[in-house]
Design brief:
The structure holds 2 protein chains of 2 kinds. By secondary structure, chain A is an alpha+beta fold. In chain A, 54% of the residues lie in helices and 14% in strands. Chain A is built from 17 helices and 9 strands. In chain B, the strands form 2 sheets. Chain B has a 6-stranded mixed beta sheet. Chain B has a 4-stranded antiparallel beta sheet with strand order 2-1-4-5, covered by helices on one side. Classes of the chains: A alpha+beta, B alpha/beta.
Amino acid sequence: MNETGEFGAGMRPEALLELALALGGFALFAALVVGLAYLIMRVLFLAVPAPAVVRFLSWRYLIHRPTNLIGVVGIFLGVGALIMILSIMTGFLDQTRKSMRGSLSDLMLILRASDRRRPFDAEKILEVVRADPRVAAASAHLSWPCFITRQGGNSMFMLSDPQLSRNAFVQLAGIDVDDEKSATEFHASLVRPPIYGESVADPRNPFAPPPEYDATVGMPRASVIVGDQLFDAHRLRRGDFITLIIPVRDEQSEYGFAAKEREFVVAGSFRSSENEMDLERVYLDRGQLARFMAGANEDDPLPAKATSVSQVLIKLHDYERDGDATAEELLDKLRDSGVVDGNCLLVTWEQFRGSLLGAIENERVLLGIMLSLVLLVACFTVFAILSMMVSEKRRDIGILTALGATPRLSLLVFLAIGFWDALIGAILGACTGVVLAIKIDGIERWLSDALDVQIFNRAVYIFDTIPSVVEVLPVTAIVLGAFLCTLLFAAIPAWRAASLDPVDALRNE
Amino acid sequence: MTSSEIVLRARDVKKSYRIARRELPILHGCDLELARGERLALMGPSGAGKSTFLHVLGLLDRPTAGSVEIDGDDAWRLPLEGRARLRNERLGFVFQFYHLVAELTALENVLLPAMIRWNSFTFDSKKAELQERARGLLGRFGLQERLKHRPPQLSGGERQRVALARALFHDPPILIADEPTGNLDRETGEKVLELLFEEQARRQLSLLLVTHDERLAARCERVARMDAGRIHNGLRG
C-alpha cells in the first residue's frame, strides 16, 4: 500500500526490465552454482574410493529427473529465507539494543531512597566514579514524576499516552547538558530529525530560550525539551509555555505530600531511539529541577538540603570487557567512600533492561525454530522424491547388481543424489540469503517504488533503513544443518535401495 | 574334455521360497556343468524354474542348498564383495528385456561394468582407452551411429545389441543369456543371435542360453531340459 493506504496501479515498465535483468542474473548465478557443484563432485570423487558409477549415475539421475529440482528449490528457499530473516531479526535486535541502551549509558547507579535524611552529593559521587580509569564519562540525573498542563489553564489536560488516551505521569529528567552528552546518546536525540516535533534551535546549548521566546516577558526563566511524541500529544510549538505540576513531600499535608507547579518554556523536542522515552520524558536542567522541587526560584542558589541526584549514568571505555566487573567493584568503592549506602544499586544497562532484551531474543529464537520447519519440509521433500525414485529405479538397481554392484554401491548412488540436492540448494540458498540480507533495504525501496506500495513504514521505527546483520556463525550453522538434515533424510530411501532384492528388481517389468 | 575345463558347475542346487509359512520348493537338486567355450541351451516350459536357476547361477539369488562353482571357486561361500567381483569380471548377462539404464547413452551403458569395477580416479585415467574399446564393440555391432542415443531412442534390436556389447565389454569367460530374442521379431532376433554366436565362437565363451525355441536350441552343442525344478542332461558326458 502507498501512504494513503491504497495499492499502486501496477509495475513500472522500467521496473519490469530491472526485474528481468535481476532474474537473468540469478539464473546465471544458479548455473554457476550447478557448475561449481559439478566441479566439487569431480574433485571429491577423486579422493573418495567409491566406484565411478556412483558419481556418474547420481549426477545423471539428478540432471535428468526434473522432480529433483523440487528438492533443490525447497532447500534453496529454506536456507535462503532462514538466513535472510534471521539476519534481519538480528539487525532489529541489534538496533533495539542500541536504542534501549541509548538513553541509559553502560552502567546505572540507582540512588534509592533510604532512611538517611542527608541528600546524596552528586559531585562527590561523580568524583569517585570518574576516578576509575575504566570510566569514560558520567552524568548525574535527577528524575521526578510530573503532570503537564498547557498554557491557558482552564482546558487543562494531562496525558502521557495518547495512544490509550490515558492520563498519566510523565518523567522529568534533570540533567547537566555536557555530562549527558558525553555519557549518553542525548546529543543524537537532539539532532535526529523529529517526526512530529521541532528540534531545539541550538543543540550545543539546548536549554537556551528558543528564538520564538519573547525575552521581554521575563518569565518563565527555564526551558524544557519535550519528547517528540509527547510534544505532538500536547500540540506544542517551540516557544510555548507549559506548566509542570510535581508532587513534593509535605509532612503537614494530610497525605504527606503536596503539589507544586511552575511554568517553563518549550525549547524544542528530542527524538530518542525509544518510543517510550519520546512519549514520557521531559528534559530540563538538573539544577532547575532541584530548585523547583525545593521550592526555590530559578535564580536562587540551590538549598543545601535539596535533592539533586537520583541516578548516575556511567559510560565505560570498553563495556564488553569491563562492564560486569566495573559494576561490582565501583559500587564497593562508592560504599567504602561513604558517598552512597547499602540501598543503592549499580547495574549494567543489560541487567536493567533484562526482561525486554530476553523477550526480543526469545522472539528471534522462536522465529528461527519456526523457519527451520521450512527446512524440515524441504528435507522431507528430498526424502519423498528419493523414495519415489528408488521405487521407479528398482530395475536399475537390479541391473547394477547383475553387473557387479554391491548393496553399498546402490546406497551410495541414492545418497549422492541427496548430497547434490543439499549441496546445490545450500550453496544457492546461502548466497541468495546473504545477498538479500545485505541488500534488503535497497530491494525493499526498489519493490516499493516499482509496485507503488509502501512495504516497510520507516516512520514506525527509529531507524531509516531496514537493519540486517549477517553473522558467519548462524549462516554456517544453517548451511551445515540443512546439509546434514538432507543427508539424513536421503539416507532412508538410500538404505531401502540397498536392501532391495536384485531378483525382484530384475523381474520388475 | 577334463573337469578342469569346466568353468561353471552347479551341484545339487535346491531353492525354495517360504510363502505364508509354507515352504514352496522351486528347484529340487539341479546339477549342471558348462565347459570352456561350450554352447549350452537350457529349455523348459514356463514355471519350470529356469529363471530361478539362472539367478542362482548368476549369483543373484542364494540357493537353499547346493553349490555353484565358477572356475573352481565355490561362489556362494565367498563374501558379498567377492561374489560382486565375480559377477563383474567372470559373468556376462543378457536379459530378455535388455535392462539398459534409460538415463545413459548407448556408449555409457556399455561402460557401466567398468564404472562399477573402478573408482573415479582409475576410471578417469583409463577413460579414453575404455571409451575406445566400447566404441569399437558398438561399431562392430553396427551401432557406430547410435553411440550418443539413449535406450528410448533405440529400436528393440539395437537395444539388445547394446546389452550384448555391455555383457561382453569385460570379456567375461561365461555369458548367461535369458531368452535374448524373446522380445524381438524373428528377423531382428536372428541378427542378434548371429552376433551372439559369432562373438561366442570368436572369444571362446561358455554360453548358457535359456530359450523356448527348439531351432535355436538346435544350434547349441548341448541341450539341457528343465521340468518342475529338475534338470535332465545338465551334466556332461
